[in-house]
Amino acid sequence: MSFRATVESMSKIMDEMGITELELERQFLFGVYRKHIHLSKQQVASAVAMPNFPVSADAKNTNSEPADAENPKVSGYALKSPMVGVAYLAPEPGAKPFTSVGAQIKAGDTVALIEAMKTFNPIKSDKDGVVKEILVSDGQAVEFDQPIIVIE
C-alpha cells in the first residue's frame, strides 16, 4: 500500500471513530523522528476565516470588528502563506527556530518553511521589521493567503 493510500485510509478511520490526535514515530539510520499531530476540522475552518488581520497599512479591511478584550486587533504587516501546506518554524525537528517574537528581521530572511508536495519551500520576509506575533505553530496545516507572522 502506498504512503498516500495509507494516510487516506488512516484519515478515513480517524474521521469515522472521532479520533483527533495521532502520535507518529519513524526510525531512520540516523535517529528517530517523532511527531504529534492534532487534527480538527473546526481548527482549519477557524484558521481560514481570520478577517481581523490587516494586510498592510494601505489595505482596508471592511470585515473587521471593533477591538475589545476578547477580540484584540493585531496591528502590523501580516506575512501570508503563498501556498497550501504544512508550516515548520525550524529547519528540522529539535533545531533552533528561524525567528521568534521580538526578533529583528530583514527582507529576504527565512522565517518558516512550508512543505507542499514533499518539497520544503522557504518563506522569506518581504519587509524589514520586528516579529510581533507568530500566528502558526510548528507542524500546523496552513491555507493559501493565511497570515503566518505579524511584522511591525
Radius of gyration: 17 Å
Oligomeric description of these chains: single chain
Give the termini distance in whole angstroms.
48 Å
How does the helix and strand content classify structurally? alpha+beta
Strand proportion:
25-35%
Sheet with the most strands: spatial strand order: 3-10-8-5
The percentage helix is 10-25%
What sequence of helices (H) and strands (E) makes up the elements?
HEEHEEEEEEEE
List low-pLDDT spans. 41-72
Query: Average pLDDT value?
Result: 75
Counted by DSSP, the helix tally is: 2
- The count of strands amounts to 10
How does the overall form come out from the CA principal axes?
elongated
Report the biggest beta sheet as strand number plus sense, adding barrel if it closes: 4 strands, antiparallel
SSE inventory with pairings:
Blueprint: H1 3-17, E1 21-28, E2 31-38, H2 41-48, E3 77-80, E4 85-88, E5 104-105, E6 110-116, E7 119-124, E8 129-134, E9 140-142, E10 147-151
Antiparallel strand pairs: 1-2, 3-10, 4-6, 4-9, 5-8, 6-7, 8-10
Describe the protein.
With 152 residues, the chain is an alpha+beta fold. The chain contains 2 helices and 10 strands. The protein has a 4-stranded antiparallel β-sheet with strand order 3-10-8-5, with no helix packed on it. β6 and β7 form a beta hairpin. The longest helix has 15 residues. It is elongated, with a radius of gyration of 17 Å. The N and C termini lie far apart (48 Å).
Keywords, separated by commas or semicolons:
alpha+beta, 4-stranded antiparallel beta sheet, 2 helices, elongated
Give a brief description.
This protein has 152 residues and is an alpha+beta fold. Helices cover 15% and strands 35% of the residues.
